């Protein structure tokens, strides 16, 4: 793995200004993703993981906007680009595998025409033979037969559709692939096949991947490093082995202990309480109301994400508190 | 007619001496049930057998949790719908307390509806957004005449909501959109619970709920079973939760129950190649046990074969298939007292004496 980051996010803030106030969906995130690294971004619904991915793609829709921070992709500051400039990056240097493949494909066009649209839109215009050769290669890469090109989306199974979206995402050999719960609609066997396909093509083109999701099992299978998000903040960031062997943040610990496994029956323990409203994030640590280990300082001071290789935002770890 | 049969259904719960000779019939029983869905124009009919000749008894005593697992399209949801009476099977019989469900009418049908409750996958689409949460309860209370006064009704609602770990004051009087997905799903469990059913059929109750809330909902289901003696049929594609919650499991593939029995045995030492595939595909929350280690090598010998009646439905995907698999449907081979498998790899094992699935189920040690 190379040491230079392909993606560098600093103090990213995404706000949604609605009538009742400002929703701080992403509330100050620092994150580096190395070349060809597989980073998992986990958290419950509303923790800001998908919003972070959309911010990288610059696909935040109003009333949302990127309020502050910087996003650098391979040295290029994405936030300084105009929309026409961003269009040459989106799909090229950074591509997205969407959550619901069935909604990502046009139901009335054949797979071949949809992929061709995507290629031509990015200025690929080669002879008919070259193009069809290219399409066949793409299909082969994701383990589909060429005959799938002539089909309509409804003629494909869920897993096949998700492979088509992977094929489209890698067609320009991006440096970074954002995969937003790519298998949440699929069952286990197909899920494994799709994730293995993603891993194969990723290795082939050497791209980095950010896998967004809430399934810690899937993260354990796929990721090199895991970032845990809570209420718009990163609360822990460490290698996958460290996260599972020595989870530091109480939220991460609860998240892992709530996972069912097949190594013996036990009482399943959920995480009590609910995440805070992002309209009114309480002062101090956002996890404090649900935290079984909270101490008095947690109510006044927001812990910062600190640490060398394993980073955690929690007062239990004796770092100097930073006053707000 | 009505009076006689109502005594029978009461006998299910209190045996008052009249029925001593024969044991009480199981609460729900499927006898050789098949469900065929046909599609396409009449000159090119395509039959899809969603449930294929399933015989299964769901007993009330002992109250157990049975999981039904399989991929999408395996027929597990159809099986649940047949037991709920939402679907009349193409062939075979469905009996409720020993009587065909199709003959149950009027007040008795209402009783059947009350005793066999459903919890569905999507906690968003079962609610009418214009009504408060209370509506879900008051409709059920008035329909089943559970309360004689407003106070009594209020008490029932509050008791049910507190029973699933929610605070009544923060739940009642709210609209569905004011609750989270996990809360909504727990409200559905509370509603079922209030009706004091004998069976709950839960079809993927946690697949749309955040991981942190799954545990809470599954624990609620487990408590209903252990503490109130409610039999639970848990339909899922997630083998880890099935393992944690259920006593026994049925693995379905293309309408057939291909392996069934004690959940620990089935998941920790799967016998059918399909069950093995399912177990190997579980994304284990352990970075030291990655999928790559079990990546299969070698293709199935009968890949691409068209699956017809009278052959093993898994033959086209099975790496261990032998010629017999392509010409005959495997019978049920009994591996031990609490497990059978429909696979010729186990043809040395004795044949099952009955096709009834729950015969091989294990009761819980107390």
Task: Give descriptors for this structure.
heterodimer; A: 324 residues; alpha/beta; 7-stranded mixed sheet; 4-stranded antiparallel sheet; 10 helices; 29% helix; B: 366 residues; 31% helix; globular; disordered N terminus
SSE blueprint and pairings:
The complex is a heterodimer of chains A (about 325) and B (about 375).
Chain A: E1 5-18, E2 21-34, E3 38-42, H1 49-57, E4 64-73, E5 76-77, H2 83-87, E6 94-97, H3 101-104, H4 111-121, H5 128-141, H6 158-170, E7 176-180, H7 188-205, E8 208-213, H8 216-222, E9 225-230, E10 233-239, H9 240-245, H10 250-257, E11 311-312
Parallel strand pairs in A: 3-8, 3-9, 6-7, 7-8
Antiparallel strand pairs in A: 1-2, 1-4, 4-5, 9-10, 10-11
Helix pairs in contact in A: 6-7
Chain B: H1 2-11, E1 28-39, E2 46-58, E3 65-69, H2 76-84, E4 91-96, E5 99-100, H3 106-115, E6 116-119, H4 133-143, H5 150-163, H6 168-171, H7 181-194, E7 199-203, H8 211-228, E8 231-236, H9 239-245, E9 248-253, E10 256-262, H10 263-268, H11 273-281, E11 333-336, E12 339-341
Parallel strand pairs in B: 3-8, 3-9, 6-7, 7-8
Antiparallel strand pairs in B: 1-2, 1-4, 4-5, 9-10, 10-12, 11-12
Q: Would you kindly provide a written description of the structure presented here, covering whatever features stand out?
A:
- The complex is a heterodimer of chains A (324) and B (366).
- Chain A has ten helices and eleven strands.
- Chain A is an alpha/beta fold and 324 residues long.
- In chain A, the strands form two sheets. Chain A has a seven-stranded mixed β-sheet with strand order 6-7-8-3-9-10-11, sandwiched between helices. A four-stranded antiparallel β-sheet of chain A has the order 2-1-4-5.
- In chain A, strand 7, helix 7 and strand 8 form a beta-alpha-beta unit.
- In chain A, helix 6 runs parallel beside helix 7.
- The radius of gyration of chain A is 21 Å and the shape is globular.
- The mean pLDDT of chain A is 87.
- In chain B, helix 7 runs parallel beside helix 8.
- The radius of gyration of chain B is 22 Å and the shape is globular.
- Helices cover 31% and strands 20% of the residues of chain B.
- Chain B has an eight-stranded mixed β-sheet with strand order 6-7-8-3-9-10-12-11, sandwiched between helices.
- Chain B has 366 residues and is an alpha/beta fold.
- Chain B is built from eleven helices and twelve strands.
- The two termini of chain B are 40 Å apart.
- The relative contact order of chain B is 0.13.
């Amino acid at each position: 793995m190379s040491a230079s980051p392909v993606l560098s996010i600093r103090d990213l803030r995404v706000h949604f200004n609605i009538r009742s106030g400002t929703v701080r969906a992403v509330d100050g995130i620092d994150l580096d993703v190395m070349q060809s690294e597989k980073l998992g971004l986990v958290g419950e619904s509303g923790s800001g993981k998908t919003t972070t991915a959309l911010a990288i793609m610059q696909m935040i829709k109003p009333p949302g906007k990127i309020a502050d921070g910087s996003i650098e992709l391979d040295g290029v500051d994405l936030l300084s680009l105009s929309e026409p400039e961003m269009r040459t990056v989106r799909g090229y240097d950074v591509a997205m595998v969407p959550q619901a493949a069935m909604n990502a494909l046009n139901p009335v066009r054949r797979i071949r025409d949809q992929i061709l649209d995507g290629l031509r839109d990015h200025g690929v215009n080669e002879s008919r033979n070259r193009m069809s050769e290219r399409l066949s290669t793409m299909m082969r890469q994701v383990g589909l037969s060429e005959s799938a090109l002539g089909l309509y989306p409804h003629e494909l199974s869920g897993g096949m559709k998700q492979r088509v979206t992977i094929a489209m995402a890698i067609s320009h050999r991006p440096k970074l692939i954002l995969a937003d719960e790519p298998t949440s609609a699929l069952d286990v066997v197909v899920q494994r096949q799709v994730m293995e396909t993603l891993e194969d093509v990723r290795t082939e083109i050497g791209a980095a991947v950010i896998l967004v999701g809430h399934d810690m099992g899937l993260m354990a299978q796929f990721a090199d490093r895991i970032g845990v998000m809570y209420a718009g903040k990163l609360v822990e960031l460490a290698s996958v082995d460290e996260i599972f062997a020595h989870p530091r943040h109480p939220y991460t610990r609860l998240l892992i202990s709530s996972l069912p496994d097949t190594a013996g029956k036990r009482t399943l323990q959920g995480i009590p309480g609910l995440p805070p409203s992002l309209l009114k994030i309480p002062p101090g640590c956002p996890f404090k109301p649900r935290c079984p280990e909270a101490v008095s300082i947690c109510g006044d001071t927001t812990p910062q994400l600190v640490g060398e290789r394993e980073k955690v935002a929690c007062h239990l770890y004796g770092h100097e508190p930073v006053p707000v | 007619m009505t009076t006689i049969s109502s005594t029978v259904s009461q006998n299910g719960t209190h045996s008052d001496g009249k029925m001593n000779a024969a044991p009480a019939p199981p609460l729900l029983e499927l006898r050789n049930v098949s469900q065929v869905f046909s599609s396409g124009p009449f000159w090119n009919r395509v039959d899809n057998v969603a449930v294929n000749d399933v015989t299964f008894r769901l007993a009330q005593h002992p109250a157990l949790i049975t999981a039904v697992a399989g991929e999408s399209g395996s027929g597990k949801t159809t099986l649940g719908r047949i037991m709920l009476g939402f679907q009349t099977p193409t062939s075979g019989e469905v009996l409720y307390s020993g009587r065909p469900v199709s003959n149950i009418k009027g007040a008795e049908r209402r009783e059947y509806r009350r005793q066999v409750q459903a919890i569905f996958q999507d906690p968003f689409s079962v609610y009418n957004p214009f009504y408060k949460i209370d509506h879900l309860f008051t409709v059920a209370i008035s329909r089943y005449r559970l309360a004689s006064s407003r106070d009594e009704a209020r008490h029932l609602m509050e008791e049910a909501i507190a029973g699933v770990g929610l605070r009544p004051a923060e739940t009642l009087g709210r609209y569905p959109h004011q609750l989270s997905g996990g809360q909504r799903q727990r409200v559905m469990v509370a509603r079922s619970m209030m009706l004091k059913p004998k069976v709950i059929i839960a079809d993927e109750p946690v697949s749309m709920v955040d991981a942190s809330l799954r545990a809470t909902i599954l624990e609620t289901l487990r408590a209903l079973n252990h503490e109130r003696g409610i039999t639970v049929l848990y339909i899922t594609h997630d083998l880890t939760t099935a393992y944690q919650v259920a006593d026994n499991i049925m693995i379905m593939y293309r309408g057939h129950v291909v392996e069934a029995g004690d959940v620990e045995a089935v998941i920790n030492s799967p016998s059918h190649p399909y069950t093995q595939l399912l177990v190997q595909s579980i994304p284990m929350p352990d970075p030291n046990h990655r999928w790559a280690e079990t990546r299969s090598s070698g293709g199935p010998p009968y890949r691409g074969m068209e699956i017809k009646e009278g052959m093993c439905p898994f033959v086209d995907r099975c790496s261990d298939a032998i010629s017999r698999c392509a010409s005959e449907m495997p019978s049920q081979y009994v591996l031990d007292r609490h497990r059978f498998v429909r696979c010729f790899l186990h043809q040395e094992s004795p044949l099952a004496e009955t096709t009834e699935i729950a015969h091989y189920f294990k009761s819980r040690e107390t």
